[in-house]
From TrEMBL:
Originating species: Chamaesiphon polymorphus CCALA 037
Domain UDP-glucose/GDP-mannose dehydrogenase C-terminal: residue ranges: 330-432
Enzyme class: oxidoreductase
Sequence intervals crossing the membrane: none
One Gene Ontology biological process: UDP-glucuronate biosynthetic process
GO MF annotation terms: NAD binding; UDP-glucose 6-dehydrogenase activity
EC number: 1.1.1.22
Record keyword Oxidoreductase present: yes
Positions annotated to bind substrate: F157, L158, R159, E160, K221, F266, L267, Q268, A269, G270, G274, K337
Domain of life: Bacteria
Name of the protein in question: UDP-glucose 6-dehydrogenase
Length: 451
């Protein structure tokens, strides 16, 4: 099928590359000309495991192209994915200006043939009909007298760091539309994924496809992220209670997670959730609820619990080091999760703000963030090239991101380089006993100190 993906960020680029991989003819559009040039030269602008190789293979096979010209994309594509960003506004509502610009542009370039316009971006509930109206407005300004199209909501559930795996092995595919023609085309598009032709476990039953109305599909995306965020805030709250009563939250999580009604996923206590989706999506759902006269108290508490949780490592550092002014704290990891270079709304950024506000010197080491990244929010810290350089002269370390390589570090060597070997394991990721044997004062989240 002929597919056009507009917006080549973490979602758009992965979607475009994976659809090309399953045999579709894909053109990806981005209005960032430098990014397009980079991709045309075969380089991925983002880090995602396996993405670069799959991208170049599909370009060489002639199934994947990049352009900055929306008209070319709209002309070519029968299915047009909108995959641009929907960041949060200061009010907590979703900023839909990029979606609006793309929808208008699509309308202006419609050429008479039937198109399926797919909202892949996470858009506020009710946006399907709004996108239809914007496309019609654009068409009135453009060259199409009688545009023929339908709008579909097809929310994305991939996780950064395992985006390709998730695209080929989804738990479900949600298609929201009132048009049978559009639903049929979407089912054809995804058939190779549904039948697990590209899956890691091809013998599993077909991927469930849930066909809904537009509004329900849009709500599913927000409800899924809000539930996951709430589950993490819940276990973090339990962890804070564990801290006070002397229980170990890792054992408590295991004990409750064995209950199949609860499940063991998303029950790791730590320094809170972040990233490009949870914070903005939970806020946007609260905002939508308010717009419709409902006070979403549970979701507000989910956000507030997380706000406090992000700074819990500071409390723990203060308990050990007392005054942080003049001390040096090293952060192991910066990205909001491992295997991504994404720093959007990462808990590390709040930690940096608070530590520097308290007068501490902050150093950091992250496998994918280098000192030439030129990010203004990292300007006040020292980025090091490895963990040894990080530990050297530090009063304490905080493990912020659970990068696999942090489990394999020579902690005895790191301890020997530090003023006072203390580590706050912000993800309960390291083996407490090994760290203690290596000479560290190990502090977990919601876990009692070692005997
Ligand atoms: P992103 O910021 O990484 O990428 C957005 C891209 O859109 C950028 O390359 C930008 O240059 C491009 N763009 C902006 N305006 C454009 C225009 N007018 N024409 C063409 N291109 C334009 O965003 P993302 O993380 O990929 O997220 C995209 C959407 O998917 C968001 O709504 C997000 O909530 C949702 N989502 C993201 C994830 C995730 O893990 N990142 C997961 C599920 C859903």
């Amino acid at each position: 099928m002929q597919v056009c993906v507009i917006g080549t960020g973490y979602v758009g680029l992965v979607t475009g590359v994976c659809l090309a991989q399953i045999g579709h003819q894909v053109i990806c559009v981005d209005n960032d000309v430098e990014k397009v040039k980079l991709m045309q030269s075969g380089q991925s602008p983002i880090f995602e495991p396996g993405l670069s190789q799959m991208m170049t293979a599909n370009m060489e096979a002639g199934r994947l192209e990049f352009t900055a010209d929306l008209q070319v994309g709209v002309d070519r594509g029968e299915i047009l994915f909108i995959a641009v960003g929907t960041p949060a506004l200061p009010s907590g509502a979703s900023d839909t200006r990029y979606v609006e610009a793309v929808a208008r542009g699509i309308g202006q370039h419609l050429n008479g043939g039937y198109k399926v316009i797919v909202n892949k971006s996470t858009v506020p509930i009710g946006s399907g009909d709004w996108v239809r109206r914007i496309v019609l407005d654009g068409a009135a300004e453009g060259r199409s007298e009688t545009p023929s199209f339908d709008v579909v909501s097809n929310p994305e559930f991939l996780r950064e760091g395992s985006a390709i795996y998730d695209t080929f092995n989804p738990d479900r595919i949600v298609i929201g539309s009132s048009s049978e023609r559009a639903i049929d085309l979407m089912q054809q598009l995804y058939a190779p994924i549904v039948t697990r032709q590209f899956a890691q476990y091809p013998d599993l039953p077909p991927v469930p496809v849930l066909v809904t109305d537009l509004t329900s599909a849009e709500t599913i995306k927000y409800a899924a992220n809000a539930f996951l965020a709430t589950k993490i805030s819940f276990i973090n709250e339990v962890g804070n209670i564990c801290d006070r009563v002397g229980a170990d939250v890792t054992l408590v999580a295991k004990g409750i997670g064995l209950d199949t009604r609860i499940g063991n996923k998303f029950l790791q206590a730590g320094i809170g959730w972040g990233g490009s989706c949870f914070p903005k999506d939970v806020s946007a759902l609260v905002h939508t609820a308010t717009d419709y006269g409902y006070n979403a108290q549970l979701l507000k508490a989910t956000i507030e619990t997380n706000r406090q949780q992000r700074l819990i490592a500071i409390d723990k550092l203060q308990q050990v080091l007392k005054i942080l002014k003049g001390k040096t704290v090293g952060l192991l990891g910066l990205t909001f999760k491992p295997d991504t270079d994404d720093l959007r709304d990462a808990p590390a950024l709040d930690l940096i703000d608070r530590l520097t506000h308290l007068g501490a010197k902050v150093k950091a080491y992250d496998p994918l963030i280098s000192s030439d990244c030129n990010r203004p929010d990292l300007a006040k810290i020292t980025l090091t090239a490895n963990a040894q350089e990080l530990a050297s002269g530090c009063d304490a370390l905080v493990l912020v991101t659970e990068w696999q390589e942090f489990q394999e570090l020579d902690y005895a060597l790191l301890a020997s380089l530090m003023e006072r070997p203390t580590i706050v394991d912000g993800r309960n990721y390291l083996d407490a006993r090994s760290l203690a044997n290596a000479g560290f004062d190990y502090i977990g989240i919601g876990r009692p100190p070692l005997d």
